[in-house]
Amino acid sequence: MKSYAIAAILLGTALAGNAALAETTITIESWRNDDLPIWQKEIIPAFEKDHPDIKVVFAPSAPTEYNAALNSKLDAGTAGDLITCRPYDASLALYKKGQLADLSDMAEMKNFPEVAKSAWQTDDGAHTFCMPMASVIHGFIYNKDAFDELGITPPKTVDEFYADLDKIKADGSYIPLDMGTHDQWEAATMGYQNIGPTYWKGEEGRKALIAGTQKLTDPDWVEPLKQLAKWSNYLGDGYQAQTYPDSQNLFTLGRAAIYPAGSWEIPGFEAQADFKMGAFAPPVQKVGDTCYISDQPDHAMGLNAASKNKDAAMTFLQWLGGQDFAQIYANSLPGFFALNSAPVDLKDPLAQEFLSWRKDCKSTIRSTYQILSRGTPNLENATWAASANVMNGTQTPEEAAADLQKDLASWYKPQQN
Amino acid sequence: MSERTPFRWHIAVFLAPAVVIYTLVMIIPLFATLDLSLYSATETGTKFVGLENFRTLFGDAHWAEQFWNAFWNNVWFFLINMAVQNPVGIALAALLSLPRLRFAALYRSAIFVPTILSFVIVGFVWKLILSPIWGIAPSMLAAIGLRHLFEPWLGQETTALTTVALISVWQFIGIPMMLIYAALLSIPEEVIEAAEVDGITGMAQFWKIKLPLILPSIGIISILTFVGNFNAFDLIYVAQGALAGPDFSTDILGTFMYRTFFGFQLQLGDPNMGATIASVMFFIILIGVCLYLFGIQRRLRRYQF
């Protein structure tokens, strides 16, 4: 009996040693099935060129099924070696269950700013469990041809922003601001979270909210809602029933002048639109004010704690944290920006414009994503409804803010006093 | 002693497939759902909590507000269906059964076709028709000079639920129409002739002779509408999304249950609370059906021909 066991161990070691010498195959779990060709044609060949002994398989599933599928694969022990991490609580839960390895000690972590890592850290910031990959930046994309035709320039301040909108509205040939409230998340994500950081001063306000020293009813948090209420004067006819695809099509068909955007729109818009496009950052309140941008970490990669090919997987993660990957990724998917602090040489002009704001503006993340959406009622979902209500005129900004604060305080301790 | 009647095995054998399949896909999941609603997830695993989830659903201010909002929206959704779909369905059936109507088969098929369409198609097509941007509704109204009457109906809290309910009516009007049509056709000629001999014709004939004879069918249609509406989910999900906007004004029990069970965006799914809502839906339907069976069905007079 015993000798069999020893033989088995010896055989196992021999096989493992053999495999390491020859070729190790590592598998990546992901929800980015849209990116499959880019992984197969650009990213994996670049890695395998430097590491011929490691073979990488990118095995994505459908975005809507990813979380459930990944959880059951991890529980059953059949998940891949590398796991693409959703930001915040979904991945934190996996780490807490011991399914994602702690990567805090990796040297490459120093290549990333704190904000980038915050999406994949424990609440105290002591442990990081995923290597940041890409983020999306909010701002406004505009129709350059329309701007030239009307003789207006991209606004720097809020006053200039409304002056431009007034001119577009007076001219009447374009919808000044292209957004609908039907799907609700546009109002919250491209509206509230886009311009909000300017008022609540980015990370400063966001952290104060988490600490409980600021409230959603404070003027800094109500003001973005007031701005959204003002936006509704410049939206298209029947914007209450305008959906997200409607907004995208209106813009790419050249019927609207300004589109409150996320950088993920860039590849799609460039393929569809036959006019010149430009981008401007969320306008500041007064000339000379610091500008803030929402620079939302969107995906990262972690190590399956039960992986049998940890060495090979770590090698891949080290490469992922370096400059080469950042370069390839940002250029093959313009609009998804590498989170690496080192400057990246981007070729797409519109993506360059978005990325350039990182130099002058302070980055922050969407205020509702970290910690504050853990309870019921869920603050993120409540913010969707509140932003849409304010734009539809069914709630005043003050009422909406009071409701949000009430929802949050109902379960979040630091906000209860 | 006479021979004992042998056990009639063939009955069991013939019943078995239906019983087994029905048990597997309906009865076991139903009890599993009821069971699931008695547990709650904690840090250490799930534990039995009795009726605690139901207490949360009705007692916690936030949950109760969401639940009653969904419930009353569901009631309104049902009332619109009852008040529009069934009378119009009966009227259409009465028209179709007129002996001199031309192209009856064509009308019958045309009105019935939406019923066999997928919810996804219906929701998407109506969203497009009513779209203020690409829709044909605004231009059709403009063509008859009534453009000012157009509103983004699906995007306004005051109109969204009624609009979706009317879309549901449009989709399912074929069902009451066909059932009533069949009932009307099954009324024997002698009865109609006898009525005519007595001088009852036209509208009076419909109200005094035909309507009482089709009442049992109307009862069945009402209960089908009730069960269908309190189980509804698909159309709202397709047309308005899982958040059933604007501001939950189109949220019905089905969408509320879906959001709770599977989670939505940053809201993590809670299978136990989801099962609780599903159980409550089951009880609402059970009570409704019982009220109908014992309160109404028994009093309906049936006529044997």
How does this model look, in words?
The complex is a heterodimer of chains A (417) and B (305). Helices cover 47% and strands 15% of the residues of chain A. With 417 residues, chain A is α/β, with parallel strands linked by helices. In chain A, strands 1, 2, 3, 4, 5, 6, 7, 8, 9 and 10 form a ten-stranded mixed beta sheet that branches. Chain B has helices spanning 9-36, 52-59, 61-96, 104-116, 119-129, 136-143, 160-172, 174-185, 189-197, 202-230, 234-240, 253-262, 271-296; strands spanning 39-42, 45-48, 263-264, 267-268. Helices cover 69% and strands 4% of the residues of chain B. In chain B, the strands form two sheets. A two-stranded antiparallel ribbon of chain B has the order 1-2. Chain B has a two-stranded antiparallel ribbon with strand order 3-4. In chain B, a hairpin with a 2-residue loop joins strand 3 (263-264) and strand 4 (267-268). Chain B has a single domain, classed as MetI-like fold (Orthogonal Bundle). Chain A binds chain B through residues 88-90, 180-185, 236-243, 246, 250, 368-369, 373, 376-381, 384-385, 388-389, 392, 394-395, 407, 410, and chain B through 61-63, 127, 130-134, 138, 150-157, 240-241, 243, 245-248, 264-268, 270.
Key traits:
heterodimer; A: 417 residues; alpha/beta; D-Maltodextrin-Binding Protein, domain 2; 2 domains; 17 helices; 47% helix; globular; B: 305 residues; mainly alpha; MetI-like fold; 13 helices; 69% helix; flat; ABC_transporter_permease (chain B); transmembrane helix (chain B)
CATH superfamily of chain B: MetI-like
| CATH hierarchy, class of chain B | Mainly Alpha
Query: Strand fraction band of chain B?
Result: under 5%
Strand content of chain A: 5-15%
CATH class of the largest domain in chain A: Alpha Beta
* CATH architecture identity of chain B: Orthogonal Bundle
Query: So what's the oligomer here?
Result: heterodimer
Helical percent range of chain B?
55-70%
On the 0 to 100 scale, the average pLDDT of chain B is 90
Structural class of chain B: mainly alpha
**Secondary-structure element order of chain B, N to C:** HEEHHHHHHHHHHHEEH
Largest sheet of chain B: 2 strands, antiparallel
Principal-axis shape of chain A equals globular
What is the rounded distance between the termini of chain B?
45 Å
Determine the structural class of chain A based on helices, strands and strand pairing: alpha/beta
Domains counted in the coordinates of chain A: how many?
A: 2
Name the poorly predicted regions of chain A: 9-21
Fourth-level CATH superfamily of the largest domain in chain A: Periplasmic binding protein-like II
| Radius of gyration based on Cα positions of chain A | 23 Å
N/C terminus separation of chain A: 66 Å
Keywords (chain B): Cell membrane, Membrane, Transmembrane, Transmembrane helix, Transport
Membrane topology (chain B): Multi-pass membrane protein
Protein name (chain B): Carbohydrate ABC transporter permease
Organism (chain B): Thioclava arctica
